[in-house]
Amino acid sequence: MSDSSPAARVGAGEISIPAAMEAFSNLADVWDISTDEQINLLGSPGRSTFFKWKKSGGNLPNDTLERISHILAIFKALQIVLPDETAADEWIKKSNDYFDGRSALEVMLDGKVVDIYKVRQYLDAQRGG
Asked: Which residues contact 81 (CB under 8 A, 6 or more apart)?
């Protein structure tokens, strides 16, 4: 059985892209996150910087690496809390009473690392972590 998680596909491409950025790109595909949303989640780098990162890598700032780390942890927590892959992948865009009717993605798109961390913290609590 093949593992199709974003982290499992890291390194599968021919271009040498930092593992963190490749995992994030794969996750963005799974969650169907737009380019503008991806840029926002990564801390709003310039569009040309974002596309350079996607194409050929480069040095990612610590802030960006922290954001990716939290986002990948959110993905992992969802796989534990919601073992149905489709439900886990769709959860990110569904409204949630805990976030005052907003989706987790909407909360994360507020733009700060702490906004991403709020979602991670919520899911960690749900899984008992």
From this structure: 88, 123, 126, 127
Has residue 66 been placed in a domain? yes
Identify any residues that bridge with 95 across adjacent strands, giving them in sequence order: 103
Instruction: Provide the number of structural domains found in the chain.
Output: 1
Is the CB of residue 92 less than 8 Å from the CB of residue 78?
yes
For residue 22, being part of any structural domain is answered with yes
Reported residue count of the chain is 129
Is residue 8 in some structural domain? Answer: no
23 is a domain residue: yes
Mean pLDDT by 10 residues, the chain (129 residues): 43 54 93 97 95 84 93 95 91 96 97 96 88
Of 25, 57, 58, 18, nearest in space to 41 by CA = 25
